Amino acid sequence: MTATDRAAAEHSPDDPTDEGREAQDSASGQSTLSVVLAFAANAAVGVLKLIAGLLTGSSAMLAEAAHSAADCVTEVLLFTALRRSGKQADRVHPFGYGKERFFWAMIASVSVFVVGATYSVYEGITTIIENAPDPAEEQFAWVAYSVLALSAVIEGISWQQALRQVLHEKRELRLSLSRYLRLSDDPTVKSVLFEDTAALLGLAFAAVGVVLHQQTGSSVWDGIASIMIGVLLAVVAFILGRTNKNLLIGRAAEPRVTAAIYDQLSAAPEVTAVVDLQTMLTGTDSVLLCARVDFKDHLTVGDLERACVRLDEELRARFTDLDQVFLEPVPREDESLRDAVLERFGTTLADWRAEQDRRHSSTADEEARR
């Protein structure tokens, strides 16, 4: 979504294709760096947490070890997504393999729940039920504290890399952080950011559990911390799963992008009206466009063909994420077509475009008041 959204945000018709491709390659490289760094961090702290958990018998530390194991599995799956989604299109998959990134990201979110959340909740409930004193936890408490502090430093480095990429991209797209996280079509960096944030919160829960266990002598606090870590992982898995579900189903491009494409087609001298326009994300930085356009009646067949070719080139030059463009000439007076559009979407394209303008004005006024 990066290059195309940037073009829409800036409302500039001059977005060179080469620059757009370079931006996409840079974003892909940053995503790979975020995933690799996150894997290295999780693998390192996972071993330390496991050692601390075995020495102290702390269920919170063992839950954190399971958390890191789940994150390592996630990073492997996300790296697989980055590699496989870049395959060239073929006759079996004519629109490419871009959605493989969404699929593997969905599997990654499931692994967070299955490996991390389930084990953490189970370990916590078992600890609360047994509530047996464990001298080892008091004896080796310093090990747990040391591991938690070192883990926070390592996880923090990975978190900073993911946050830096997210903030950079959302500034380029001129989106708020919440809107960027909701609409981003790159699930890899978003997954890393959410998981690293959950990891830092999980370390805080584990630290509180270990401290309260040491102070009160009751392992119930340790078990509660473990359950809280499990619930945290379940929430993250749900958020990531919902995002990837929408991408897998076939979400439209960001409304601002669709509106900018509509405006550019409508402004073409050969076009009378844009009757219908549909977009779909076929992968990260990859958009499919289908538009039904009413061309002026005096155009010859040759004029119409040349107009379609020129519009295709102009759209691809400005919106470099457009992977496939299909333009269908139709008469706007066709009542059956209009009824079909209304039945499918509940409103005409012109009405939808006007609604986007109203929303944009409302948002601009709200930001001005702030």
TrEMBL record:
Keywords recorded for this protein, A-Z: Membrane, Transmembrane, Transmembrane helix, Transport
Region (Disordered): 1-28
Record field: transmembrane: 33-55, 102-122, 192-212, 224-241
Pfam families: Cation_efflux
Signal peptide start and end residues: none
Bilayer topology term: Multi-pass membrane protein
Compositional bias of kind Basic and acidic residues: 7-24
Record protein name field: Cation diffusion facilitator family transporter
Organism expressing this protein natively: Actinomycetospora termitidis
